[in-house]
TrEMBL record:
Domain (Phosphoribosyl-dephospho-CoA transferase MdcG C-terminal) ranges: 88-195
Molecular-function annotations in GO: nucleotidyltransferase activity
Taxonomic placement: Bacteria, Pseudomonadati, Myxococcota, Myxococcia, Myxococcales
Protein name (record): Malonate decarboxylase holo-[acyl-carrier-protein] synthase
Claim: Ion transport is one of the keywords in the record: no
UniProt keyword Cell cycle present: no
Signal peptide per UniProt: none
Domain of life: Bacteria
Keywords for the protein's UniProt record, in alphabetical order: Nucleotidyltransferase, Transferase
InterPro entries for the chain: Holo-ACP_synthase (IPR017557), MdcG_C (IPR049180), MdcG_N (IPR048903)
Residue intervals of the Phosphoribosyl-dephospho-CoA transferase MdcG N-terminal domain: 8-85
Length: 219
C-alpha cells in the first residue's frame, strides 16, 4: 500500500490475500474470526507498534461486538485502503438520541477552537461497520490535536463544562501531541506532575512541563 504509514486510530481495510502477509501467527479461532470480518468488507483499527516492529509492519486491532479483542501483526501490503478516524459530526447519526445535545456541544467546541474533533471506540466502530456496538453505558472516545498549548487549556476547560452539562454520556478520549504521542484529556485536566503518554511504539511517563515544551512558544 503506497503513501504515508497509517497512524494509530486509523482504519485499515485488508485485501483478500491478507493472511499471506502475517508477521506473527494466529491461532485458528482468531484467524477464522478475522477472515470472516475481512470478507464482510469491515475494517480493523491501527494500533501502536511494538518496539521490535519493522517500519513495514503494522499492528491492527479488532474489537468484536461482544467486546472480545483480537490483534493482528501484518506487513503493510496486507492493507489495501486506509481511512482516518471519523469526525464526531460524521458519527453522531449513529449515536442515541439522548447523546445528541452533548455531541452538538462537542462539535461547537471544536468549531470555536478551530479543531477537527475525531472519534474512536464503540461509536466509531458502529459507524465504520454498520454493526451495533453501542451499549447504554458506552463512552464517547474523542480525539483532538491542538496546535498550541493555550488551545489545550481552552479545550480542557470546554470539555469539563460540556461534561458537567451532559451527564447522560461520559466523554473520554485523547489529546494528540505534536510528537505523535497521546494523553487522556481527563488525566491531563487534573494537571498531574507526571502523566502517562501513549506513543507510536509504547507508553511512558512524562512530566507536564515536558508536554508543554512540545508546543511552539507563544508571545
Amino acid at each position: 500500500m503506497p503513501g504515508e504509514r497509517p497512524a494509530r486510530h486509523d482504519w485499515a481495510y485488508l485485501g483478500a490475500d491478507w493472511a499471506e502477509h502475517l508477521r506473527s501467527p494466529l491461532n485458528p479461532e482468531v484467524l477464522r474470526l478475522a477472515t470472516e470480518w475481512q470478507q464482510h468488507g469491515r475494517p480493523f483499527t491501527v494500533a501502536r507498534r511494538d518496539m521490535p516492529d519493522l517500519h513495514d509492519e503494522l499492528r491492527l486491532g479488532l474489537t468484536l461486538p461482544d467486546r472480545r479483542h483480537l490483534a493482528l501483526h501484518v506487513a503493510r501490503p496486507a492493507v489495501v485502503r486506509v481511512l482516518p478516524p471519523p469526525t464526531v459530526a460524521e458519527a453522531r447519526a449513529t449515536a442515541p438520541a439522548t447523546w445528541q445535545p452533548a455531541l452538538e456541544d462537542v462539535i461547537a467546541l471544536g468549531t470555536v477552537l478551530d479543531l477537527t474533533v475525531g472519534v474512536f471506540g464503540s461509536l466509531a466502530w458502529q459507524l465504520r461497520t454498520g454493526v451495533t456496538f453501542l451499549r447504554p453505558l458506552s463512552d464517547v472516545d474523542l480525539l483532538f490535536a491542538p496546535a498550541r498549548w493555550t488551545d489545550v487549556e481552552r479545550l480542557l476547560f470546554g470539555l469539563e463544562a460540556v461534561s458537567r452539562r451532559h451527564s447522560v454520556v461520559r466523554l473520554d478520549g485523547e489529546v494528540i501531541l505534536p510528537d505523535g504521542g497521546a494523553v487522556s484529556w481527563r488525566e491531563l485536566a487534573l494537571e498531574p506532575e507526571i502523566i502517562w503518554v501513549t506513543g507510536p511504539r509504547g507508553a511512558s511517563p512524562r512530566t507536564l512541563k515536558d508536554l508543554r515544551a512540545l508546543f511552539p512558544a507563544e508571545s
